[in-house]
TrEMBL record:
<comment type="subunit">
    <text>The glycine cleavage system is composed of four proteins: P, T, L and H.</text>
</comment>
<dbReference type="GO" id="GO:0008168">
    <property type="term" value="F:methyltransferase activity"/>
</dbReference>
<keyword id="KW-0032">Aminotransferase</keyword>
<dbReference type="Pfam" id="PF01571">
    <property type="entry name" value="GCV_T"/>
</dbReference>
<dbReference type="InterPro" id="IPR006222">
    <property type="entry name" value="GCVT_N"/>
</dbReference>
<comment type="function">
    <text>The glycine cleavage system catalyzes the degradation of glycine.</text>
</comment>
<dbReference type="InterPro" id="IPR027266">
    <property type="entry name" value="TrmE/GcvT-like"/>
</dbReference>
<feature type="domain" description="GCVT N-terminal">
    <location>
        <begin position="28"/>
        <end position="282"/>
    </location>
</feature>
<dbReference type="GO" id="GO:0019464">
    <property type="term" value="P:glycine decarboxylation via glycine cleavage system"/>
</dbReference>
<protein>
    <recommendedName>
        <fullName>Aminomethyltransferase</fullName>
        <ecNumber>2.1.2.10</ecNumber>
    </recommendedName>
</protein>
<keyword id="KW-0489">Methyltransferase</keyword>
<dbReference type="GO" id="GO:0008483">
    <property type="term" value="F:transaminase activity"/>
</dbReference>
<comment type="similarity">
    <text>Belongs to the GcvT family.</text>
</comment>
<dbReference type="InterPro" id="IPR006223">
    <property type="entry name" value="GcvT"/>
</dbReference>
<dbReference type="InterPro" id="IPR029043">
    <property type="entry name" value="GcvT/YgfZ_C"/>
</dbReference>
<feature type="binding site">
    <location>
        <position position="215"/>
    </location>
    <ligand>
        <name>substrate</name>
    </ligand>
</feature>
<dbReference type="GO" id="GO:0005829">
    <property type="term" value="C:cytosol"/>
</dbReference>
Length: 388
């Protein structure tokens, strides 16, 4: 990502590509709206349209509209599609009911996280795997390789979909004006095919903001009409277009991990406090099982580090990579993500720290910000949870 000013929120960082970034089906819309664009994971994406703080607050209080068409979609289909995914991923996807979605991960043979994913079961023998943009090619290659010997097909559908998200407390009312789908019956982490503004879409009640909302998978040619229809339907509700910068502060407040920050190949799901996604009791073998069993045992007895929340007492912003120190100045961990929190009104961060400093309220914890130790309060994640 581009470097922001020291006190401004930053969107996630990804390596720059050697080639010109790709544009989504909504590229012309973003330019017409005056968006600040950035190269993200090989895509030209909107960073912000105006004030990221205003966009963030719109999602918390009304609704925001996002272009997420850079995400990577992989279809796995065939009689043994569920068995393939049970072998390739850490979750138990073969038991997923049609119409349901599941958050899961794909790990390497050592238990390191290659990516975190959402998997939708579209039919008895058809699954849609959604990967992060920067890891889509890696996930596709891994699923293809791990699919050898299974009666299933792995298909690259990254060019078959555009993805829009409407997020925020007003999102059910806004989307409800454009579809006859049973939105009240669509529970969290479910998805169903339907029409939105006359266009076919997979309507999923998922998101990455900590708010209620929906993600709409559609044909690229339908993305622009859907964007305009949602914009018009939400005009009186305060819906605004939103970029990657506020998406990052929203997910940070909600304590949601970001690949490349909280999640890496040097991290197991148990290290990240997400061991619940690893189904060690599922039948058969799966990639990384042995190392993950060992990681589970370590996490239960002597975890090497714990992911915590930090709230700054001052105004300086902790950033990824900054050391976390104790009262003596000894390094006890490292910040993985940090930004000003529009909701809390103070800078916040997620960090991995030694277990003895992980309890909420631990005294003497600070972050070394360019040579000056700034005091922080240790808190449990998430920083923000919407009222249910």
């Amino acid at each position: 990502m581009t470097e922001d000013t020291p006190d401004a929120p930053r969107a996630p960082r990804t390596p720059r590509t050697a080639h010109a970034p790709r544009t989504t089906a909504l590229g012309a819309v973003h330019r017409a709206l005056g968006a600040t664009m950035t190269d993200f994971a090989g895509w030209s994406m909107p960073l912000r349209y105006g004030s990221e703080r205003a966009e963030h607050q719109a999602v918390r209080t009304a609704a925001g509209l996002f272009d997420l068409s850079h995400m990577g979609e992989v279809t796995v289909e065939g009689p043994a599609a569920g068995d393939l995914l049970d072998h390739a991923l850490v979750g138990r996807l073969g038991a997923l009911r049609v119409g349901r979605a599941r958050y899961t991960m794909i790990c390497d043979a050592n238990g390191g996280i290659l990516d975190d994913l959402i998997v939708y079961r579209l039919a008895d023998d058809t699954y849609l795997v959604v990967a992060n943009a920067a890891n889509a090619a890696t996930v596709l290659a891994a699923l293809t390789e791990r699919g050898a010997g299974f009666d299933a097909n792995v298909r690259d559908d990254r060019d078959a979909y555009a993805l829009l998200a409407v997020q925020g407390p007003a999102s059910p009312a806004i989307l409800g004006r454009l579809t006859d789908a049973d939105l009240p019956g669509l529970k969290y982490y479910t998805g169903l095919p339907g029409t939105v503004a006359g266009r076919r879409a997979l309507i999923a009640r998922t998101g990455y903001t900590g708010e209620d909302g929906f993600e709409l998978f559609c044909a690229p040619g339908d993305a622009e009409p859907l964007w305009h229809a949602l914009t018009e339907a939400g005009r009186d509700d305060g819906l605004v277009p939103c970029g990657l910068a506020c998406r990052d502060t929203l997910r940070l407040e909600a304590g949601m991990p970001l690949y490349g920050n909280e999640l890496t190949t040097a991290t197991t799901p148990f290290d990240a406090g997400l061991g619940r996604v690893v189904k060690l009791d599922k039948p058969g073998d799966f990639v990384g099982r042995g190392p993950l069993e060992a990681a589970a045992a370590r996490a239960a007895s002597h975890p090497p580090r714990t992911l915590v929340g930090l709230i700054a007492r001052g105004r300086r912003v902790p950033r990824s990579g900054y050391p976390v120190v104790d009262a003596s100045g000894a390094v006890i961990g490292e910040v993985t993500s940090g930004a000003p929190s529009p909701t809390l009104g103070r800078p916040i961060a997620m960090a991995y720290v030694s277990p003895e400093h992980a309890a909420p309220g631990t005294e003497g914890v600070g972050v070394d910000i360019r040579g000056t130790v700034e005091p922080h309060d240790v808190v449990a994640l998430p920083f923000y949870a919407r009222a249910t």
